[in-house]
UniProtKB/TrEMBL annotation:
Sorted UniProt keywords: Multifunctional enzyme
Full protein name: Integrase catalytic domain-containing protein
Residues covered by the Integrase catalytic domain: 352-427
PANTHER family found in the cross-reference section: PROTEIN CBG26694, PROTEIN NYNRIN-LIKE
Keyword Protein transport: no
Molecular function via GO: catalytic activity; nucleic acid binding
Gene Ontology biological-process entries: DNA integration
Signal as UniProt keyword: no
Pfam families: Integrase_H2C2, RT_RNaseH_2
Upper lineage: Eukaryota, Metazoa, Spiralia, Lophotrochozoa, Mollusca
Length: 427
């Protein structure tokens, strides 16, 4: 059996890629829009971005009008699949609104749940807002199989690189070559020019030999390193049956650990598919790591989730999440600065009115259909003591209009009230 040769990107591949770009962005694939044929909008979403292709059927052939893609921010990457696909639809319908507004068009997606978009029962939050935006357009939503939806799918996976830092966890690309992985995670691993001195980044007090020695002496990491060196492949579970719980936990993730120059690392894959190495921290340095990456003045007292995310960019140890939770819970600085329950809130109580005009309430009703006199709102006034109500038509609800109507229509007739209650700052 012949060994498969690794793929190598050479000049021929580069020229073919440039040629493909030119064909996709020129006639006959790319065409001008017409006023007769309906538009077709293909949208798709991946874990890191969204993409779309706007097209028309001209002369019985589907041609591209425009391409579009956009990267997702950190909060959008946490959306469920349905919300990411819906976000792609809303984003690109608004992006191409100058083509689509006032015309019937078709939206195609490879996510079948979106076909029932208009049947959502009592949508809430941002989903309700998105649906209200789409309701201003005349569209039909169709499902298309993923194998036929590669045009928008490929655009949703375009890399939008934001910076050129090698140590940026958002920009590290997944690579297969072992040497390139090491180069991409120099902020975790040992720098080539410091391999005999100190660890890179902020860890300056431990040398390469110190880390290796501390790992060997650790009651969990040391025995696991011996297992990794003894067995090239994952051994039978009976080998770790009588060992500690943390060793059995690391055994279950056997393939993710590797030893480089006598030091144990763990390969960590982020939500975006990027891979970097984490130093498996021995027990003797974990308090120092938590101090430097959370309690240090340059880091700030972050919460549990942000602290875990920060530490996972560089380190790993069994029970990391539990240790961070306990550390944050027993932090004196956070306990002193955290407001107590109910602090800053006025106590609730009853308010009584003893005479007419002791306290009146004011509110605005509208907007309503505009009358012949141009009035669009109604200002409602009520006296707490007598329960007397009055309503006045007004053209707008600006502070000047409300104050003028209040003085001319109410105060000039009944007098000045002692207190005025409103949910707006009119006065």
């Amino acid at each position: 059996m012949r060994k498969k040769q690794p793929f190598v990107w050479d000049d021929s591949c580069e020229s073919a890629f440039v040629k493909l770009q030119q064909l996709l962005t020129s006639s006959p694939i790319l065409a001008f829009p017409t006023e007769i044929e309906p538009f077709i909008l293909d949208t798709d979403a991946s874990l890191t971005g969204i993409g779309a292709v706007l097209s028309q059927v001209q002369n019985d052939e589907e041609v591209v009008i425009a391409y579009a893609s956009k990267s997702l921010n950190k909060s959008q990457r946490r959306y469920c699949t349905t919300n990411r696909e819906l976000l792609a639809v809303v984003t690109f319908v608004r992006h191409f609104r100058h083509f689509l507004l006032g015309r019937h068009f078709t939206i195609r997606s490879d996510h079948a749940s979106l076909v029932w978009l208009r049947n959502f029962k009592e949508p809430e939050g941002v989903v309700a807002q998105w649906i209200s935006i789409l309701d201003t357009f005349d569209y039909e939503l169709q499902y298309r199989k993923g194998e036929n939806h590669v045009n928008a799918d490929s655009l949703s996976r375009v890399s939008h690189r934001k910076c050129k830092r090698l140590d940026c966890p958002d920009c590290i690309s997944p690579v297969s070559d072992k040497k390139e992985v090491n180069d991409a995670v120099t902020y975790v691993n040992l720098r080539s020019d410091q391999s005999k001195e100190t660890l890179s980044y902020w860890v300056q007090s431990w040398s390469h030999d110190d880390i290796r020695q501390m790992q060997s002496n650790d009651s969990v990491i040391g025995p696991f390193i011996e297992l990794k060196e003894k067995f090239k492949k994952k051994p039978d579970r009976s080998v770790v049956k009588r060992m500690s719980e943390n060793i059995r936990l690391m055994y279950s993730m056997w393939e993710t650990f590797e030893i480089q120059e006598g030091i144990l690392y763990r390969k960590f894959v982020t939500e975006k598919g990027n891979t970097h190495l984490q130093l498996v921290a021995p027990l003797t340095i974990r308090n120092e790591i938590l101090t430097q990456l959370r309690d240090n003045k340059t880091e700030g007292h972050l919460g549990r989730d942000k602290t875990i995310s920060t530490i996972r960019q560089r380190f790993y140890w069994p029970g990391l999440s539990k240790d961070v939770k306990i550390w944050c819970k027993h932090c004196n600085v956070c306990a002193k600065n955290k407001p107590g329950p109910g602090r800053g809130k006025a106590p609730m109580g009853h308010v009584y009115s003893n005479r007419p005009l002791d306290r009146i309430a004011i509110d605005i009703l509208g907007p309503l259909p505009v009358t012949e006199n141009g009035n669009e709102y109604i200002m409602v006034l009520g006296d707490y003591f007598s329960k007397w109500k009055e309503a006045y038509p007004i053209k707008n609800h600006t502070a000047q209009t409300v104050a003028d109507k209040l003085i001319s229509e109410f105060i000039c007739r009944f007098g000045v009230p002692s207190n005025i209650h409103s949910d707006q700052n009119f006065m």
